[in-house]
Amino acid sequence: MSKRSFFVRLVPCRCLRGEEEAVTSLDYSHCSLETVPKEIFSFEKTLQELFLDANQIEELPKQLFNCQLLQRLSMPDNDVTVLPPGVANLVNLRELDVSKNSIQEFPENIKNCKMLTIVEASVNPISKLPDGFTQLMSLSQLYLNDAFLEFLPASFGRLTKLQILELRENQLKMLPKFYDPADVCVCVCVCACVRRSMQKLTQLERLDLGSNEFTEVPEVLEQLTGIKELWMDGNRLTFLPGMLGTLKQLLYLDVSKNNLEMVDEQICGCESLQDLLLSNNALTQLPGTIGSLKKLTALKVDENQLMELPDSIGGLTSLDELDCSFNEIEALPASIGQCAAMRTFAADHNFLSQLPPEMGNWKNATVLFLHSNKMESLPEEMGDMHKLKVINLSNNKLKNLPYSFTKLSQMTAMWLSENQSKPLIPLQKEEDPETQKTVLTNYMFPQQTRTEDYVPNSDSESFNPALWEEQRKHRAQVAFECDEDKDERETPPREGNLKRYPTPYPDELKNMVKTAQSVAHRLKEDESNEESGRDPKSPAERNHIGVQDVGVKVIEAPHPNGLASDLGGNACNTTFTIQNIPEAVSRETESESFSSQQVPLKSSESSTINHEDTLEDSEELSDEEEEMKIAEMRPPLIEISINQPKVVTLSKDKKRRQQGCGLVAGRHGSQQQPEQQQLLVAITHVRLCVADHRQQSRQLPMHPREGGQDALPAQEQTRG
Own/partner pairs for 630-635, CB < 8 Å, 24+ apart? Predict the structure, then answer.
């Protein structure tokens, strides 16, 4: 290549020549933006499309509305709360998408966007539309689903070019009515508004009013003769009026999930109707004229109260999908065989005992759902459904299958039972002893219906409470009891096959915790009473109240001679009665009363307690020490064997361990009141008895140790 040709091909870029590239579209979707990028404003003279989808933008800057050539602004799924009035400067805007934001209203001056044709504002808390919104004469598509609209402006009919109007999931109860010349008018301007109501929406093709609060079909729909799709599902309709028969161009009608009890005969006027959805209503019959809908391809009447299908259903020659499941149909009309275009048929969960032989004319049928009925046999003609691929016959009363099923070469799944492991189970032929015909069978025949679920034979059959109660007793029941609910525990459990009882756990420890908490509460009350000048209760009274309903009883038992009984040292004059843990928890009878043993407790030589000093020093306790004292009084909730423990004499090592535990409380021993000291000793005693019992239960059966009298040393009480 020559140097000349090389330099000829070198062309300077537009930047070097001083030219700017014309940017018409910018896409900042899914960029986690919190603000609108400033570099956008450098293209305000050429920008036509701006995409800010799925960001975190909360506010739109004023400079954005200087892009006067902008035709499409898309910013769904953001955090915008206010649509600024500056949007009126976008005079060339044609498409606006602000769905999935937090916008509460449109500005009044949005009417200046005369070129606006598509507005998507679904999923916003918009409660009303401004009157200026109805001046968007070029608007053809409006999406306001999942908002808070309760009504539409009276002048909504100005939007004469509207083709798609979606108002699903709002709170609408009515639409602006059409103009009636018989009405007496007072104000001419008001008449003009009414005259421009929704009857002027002659170009409207799709209207979605689903999931609102309509109790009747709006009368204005009679004037919308150009409508092709109408959704009114999820409302409160009880009657489908005949005025819908005037909608000659209607192709799709969805009135499911209402309370419809009747469909007018004039529905046959919808001569172009292709899809009719009447599911989830309270229909007991279909109009006899339904067979006039020659173009109907899909009819769904499932989950109603139909007892039969009209004979005229055979006139639906274009019908390829029929769903009449979850009804009370006992027999299908023979005329249903005339629906030669049938491909999918569902009649499960009915009361069908047999099928008409005319169903064999469904040469194009591919899927049949016939489970949960009462069929005992199938017609031989079903073998002529050569295109049949899937059939569900489970939960019936079939004894066998017709031999003609061998001609169903395209069959991929034949369900004969709900717990069938494979879609196809091999069949073998045999001779039916009743009819002397060759039939097909396998190990799944004859079918057995489920007996645990009671299904009435018909709607007219009355409820039998005696039979229901008998079946209820045969079901497995689980009876739960709760330790904390003593009233419920004392009542005998309900009868049943399965009973569940709580794991055995001694109530004594729980009661001790409650008692310790009540002691702390009374201490605070006594302090408040002393501050207010009231006489606190005597220790005897407090002991009487504090230890009731507890597994540890305190008994003041002085020696007859006035001296404490000597067991190897100065004994304390307090005897504790400890309720032992029950040996076993019976699963059929009430728990037996706990046996008790009186155990005299020894104290150390210098453990004489001065009750007066204790009362005086207890007033000097700080808040911190008070918390420590209560914490020491609370026993741990340890797991204990259900066998009955016996009080035994401790060895030297265990005595040291107990004395160590006693020293913890002994630090404040001179500051504690008698009832607390007694409770601490009782709790320590129970804990050590339980620990000793658990250690013994792992090795040998429980038996009292040898070596003298069963006695436990009391905790040391030392003065600081």
Answer: 630/516, 630/517, 630/520, 632/664, 632/665, 632/680, 633/516, 633/519, 633/520, 633/676, 633/679, 633/680, 633/683, 634/513, 634/516, 635/509, 635/512, 635/513, 635/683, 635/686, 635/687
Cβ pair 57, 33 in contact under 8 A: yes
pLDDT tens profile 74-118: 999 999 999 999 999 999 999 999 999 999 999 999 999 999 999
pLDDT at 609: 39
Residue 264, CA distances (Å) to 240, 241, 287 in order: 6, 5, 7
DSSP bridge partners of 262: 239
Whose CA is closest to 601, among 621, 578, 633?
A: 578
707 pLDDT above the threshold of 60? no
CB atoms under 10 Å from CB of 257, counted, come to 19
Measured distance CA(15)–CA(18) in Å, rounded? 5
201-223 pLDDT, tens per residue? 989 999 999 999 999 999 999 98
> What Cα–Cα distance (Å) separates residue 672 from each residue in 47, 58, 148, 643, 713?
85, 64, 66, 34, 19
Reduce the secondary structure of 122-168 to three states and give it as a string.
CCCCCCCCCHHHHHCCCCCEEECCCCCCCCCCCCHHHCCCCCEEECC
Query: With contact defined as beta carbons under 8 Å apart, do 210 and 236 qualify?
Result: no
Distance CA 583, CA 250 (A): 80
Percent of the chain with pLDDT over 70: 58
Nearest alpha carbon to residue 670 among 594, 635, 618: 618
Instruction: Determine the 3-state secondary structure of 555 from DSSP.
Output: strand
The model's pTM:
0.61
Mean residue pLDDT across the chain: 74
Q: What is the CA radius of gyration of the chain?
A: 44
Q: How far is CA 237 from the centre of its chain?
A: 27
| Residue type, position 213, single letter | E
Beta strands in 318-476 (DSSP E): 321-323, 344-346, 367-369, 390-392, 401-402, 413-415, 428-431, 438-441
What is the spatial distance between Cα 412 and Cα 316, in angstroms, rounded to a whole number? 28
CB atoms within 10 A of CB 403: 17
Element (H, E) at 276: strand 275-277
